Amino acid sequence: MNETDGYRVSENSYVISLLHMHKPKEARQTVDHNTSTSAVDTPSASSNMASMQRWAGRVALVTGASAGIGEAIAKMLADSGMKVVACARRMEKLEALSKDRPLIRPYKCDVGVESEVKAMFDWIEAQPDLGRVDACVANAGLSIGNCGLMEG
Question: Which residues lie below 8 Å from residue 130, measured CB to CB, with a gap of 6+?
Answer without folding.
Answer: 59, 83, 85, 105, 124
